[in-house]
Amino acid sequence: MADTLRKEVDQALASLSTVLLGKTSSVRLAMTCLLAEGHLLIEDLPGMGKTTLAHALARVLGVDDKRIQFTSDMLPADITGVSIFDAAESRFRFHPGPVFTQLLLADEINRATPKTQSALLEAMEEGQVSVDGERYALPEPFFVIATQNPSSQYGTFPLPESQLDRFLMRISLGYPAPEVERQLLAGGGTRNQARQLEQQLPPERLAAAQAACAEVHASSSLIAYVQRLLQHTRDAAGFSYGVSPRGGLALLRCARCWAWLAGRDHVVPEDVQAVLGPVVGHRIRSADDLSGQEGDRLVARLLAEVDVLGH
Amino acid sequence: MKSAQISRTAVALQLVAVLLAVVPHVTWLPLWVLALLLASTGSRLMIHSGRWPFPHWLVKAVLVAAASIGLILSFNHRAGPESMVALLIVALSLKLLEVYHRRDAFVVLFVCLFVAATSFLFDESFWMALYILAVTLLILAALNSIQQGAGAGRYSTNLKTAAKLLLPAVPFMLVLFFLFPRLDPLWSVRVQGSGATTGLSDELSPGDIESLAQSSALAFRATFEHDEAPPPEQRYWRALVMSEFDGRRWTRPDPATRQRLRPEKMTAEGAVLEYSVVMEPSGRPWLVALDQPLAPAPGMALSAVRTLQLDAPLERRRQYELRSSPAYRLQPLLTAAEQRHYLQLPRGGNLQSRALARQLQQQAGGDPQALIRALMQRFNRSYVYTLEPGRLGRDSVDAFLFDTQQGYCEHFASATAFVLRSAGIPARVVTGYQGGEWNPYERYIQVRQYDAHAWVEAWLPGQGWRRLDPTAAVAPERIRMSAGDFFDTDQTRFGRAATGLDIAWLRTLSQRYDAFNFAWHRWVLNYQGEQSGLLEDWLGGSDTWRLVLAWLLPTGVVFGLVAWWQLRPRRVRHPDPLERQLQALQQALQRLGWGREPAETVSAWLTRLADEWPSMRAEMQRLAWLDEQQRYAGECSHDVRGEMLQLCRRLRQQLPRKRSV
């Protein structure tokens, strides 16, 4: 039962990889994020395949997806929807915004104003939208893939720490490897290929996989290692602030999913290390860096300085 | 109030330390001092637990006054170590009543250290040293627990800390022991009535030595160069020479007479024995020497009759080195005055003995040696050597020679000297010790009080003073064996075993114990004798700069070690034996350049190594797998751990010693 489930997930991963050439680990991380019921932030330059990833995921899961392109003149109602007076029925009628979907691709989220950003982030956190005092629940599953341009680009409103924390993971796809790129150039547009993917992991199977992930065993030694990692971000010099307990829970949850994907029923430190960068990278900040871009360097330091066995 | 910060543990340790520090003094302390100490200890407990208030100042004033008067009355203005130590203990007791602050508690314990040290004034045996060490440990533990304030831990923790603190003191102790000059006059306080066992007295009357025969107290020990102890019949330890007789007692001549006697001349004939004596305190100014010493050791004088004398009574154990010659010629010529002196007899009394002397003289026809032989034969024929000779009347020599005919060495010596003098042969009585028991473990002779002996020296023209032991004529075994053995074998005659040590193993044990005590006295307490030579051997001289260096170097080393110990990077010893084994394996591999990265799990690391060490691949992979199972998969069975321990050990054994790959 568990094995067939994992086989299905593996197949889904395999077909995703046929679309996103050479991005196996990013795809795996995205799947991990999905299994951990968290939202994914992809930070990369335009044109690296962010949208393709979102589309492909939507196809594989067989869920409906929508895309919001964030701009600086966007208003919260453009996301959540508006209530409009219906003269025929003499009452306001709610027109749901694009957020009412199962998989939402929020493109270039940092180009919108903070007010608009927070409308989306609230929806992500609460799983519901409040408009004019009415609450409207979002569909299940609800998975947001947000992309943002590196904050060094012009016309961006960097997400504040509190809102970055809402994203379970932050990954970046990066440039493809040369031979992969040659293949890509030869094969033509990949976005159309994504459209042709078949549903391989229906929502109820995804829910089952999510439940299975939560069952993965984390021993006390492993939890101690996770705790030492967190403690180090708080104690060691060079960190302007440490990882919150929520960050710690997120790290463990992702490690469980990663372990499950690897076919194990227990978490090993390698799982934690594999997801450490994506989960923790956007939650810590170097003391001498204000741009928020030093996360990866700090993660490397964490790995080098915290002993797995606590020696 | 700060005293609230002193924990119960601290108070308990403090009070126990105070009581134990005083315990060695219990035997001589006036009872009221002990009562005061117990009372103040009790009230300290009551005050600390909050049941009693602190005493009113008036109470304290009265106590101080009463204790001062008590001290004056008890010690009667006598200044001596006892009164000073008693004062210290009284002060300690009173201070216990007013421990208001932490500082007061410290003062109590510091005084306690002094009290503990004073125990050595009265007893400096090894056991006392051990006991005082334990008390010192306790005092340090109490000090530590007070420093800890309210958070003072358990007793064992405090004691452990104290032991750790004592440890760095050991090198200092050794340096002080070897380098610190022994200041004799400062330290050798005369303690009355302690230690000095009554030994030979200055005079000899019937029954004197007999009473010593019942005492197995140690008189002295002697070691010989090259372990060449003389045979028992040559072990005559001369102590005193008595040449005046009043009809019953033999005494030494008074000082005026003594001055008229010329210092006797001695010529050694034959081999010379070198030996060292450790004399127990006797309370008398004389020392023993093997018949006959060549010269006195430093610090002592040789009297005219060639006995060793000190200026003051021997109150502390003393070690001295001597050379003696068993064969000698002593004073071949006597002046007329000297002859008179050694022929002196009381006017009347002991008439039968004088008659016997005349008779023997006629039979011998003027040959002193024939006379002596005849006398000895007489003794041998019909006299009995016994510890219980019975009481003798006024004419003790007559009574012995003609009535009882049984006696102890002093009877024989006294009678022999009397008869010789009556026959016109200069004679004198010598007391000392004869024989002694050979201790095979430390290789020395131990001489006990029951080895006390009296014999005679007779002057023969042309030959000088000759040793003459009538006891040897009566009971030759007494001279050949040690006194202890002799009395043991002769229980029927004496009715009891004088030593009580007739069981072989008990005797061995007792010899070993004595050997240990002797080593302690010789090598620890009397170390100063070796000091100067040893220092020069070690340092190649005793210049100031060498001594300063000898002080500074160990000090620097000790402080360096302590600093290193404090500042060293601490690797916490893991409580889990399996983790310790893994750590050891890691360290071993690290030395070979195959250390584990911090981010590496044991299994990842071992898997990496398994490719590099094909010979150990299977074990490494197995250990890697097991480690992951027990550490992360909740697979923590006893078997898994056991197998892992074995694998760790096996891997470590297989590792090469050096980094060669």
TrEMBL record, chain B:
It holds the Pfam family Transglut_core. Keywords: Membrane, Transmembrane, Transmembrane helix. Residues 401-472 form the Transglutaminase-like domain. The keyword Nuclease does not apply. InterPro entries: Bact_TGase-like, TgpA-like_C, TgpA_N, Transglutaminase-like. It comes from the Bacteria. The chain crosses the membrane at residues 12-37, 57-77, 105-122, 128-144, 165-183, 545-565. This is DUF3488 and transglutaminase-like domain-containing protein. It comes from Marinobacterium weihaiense.
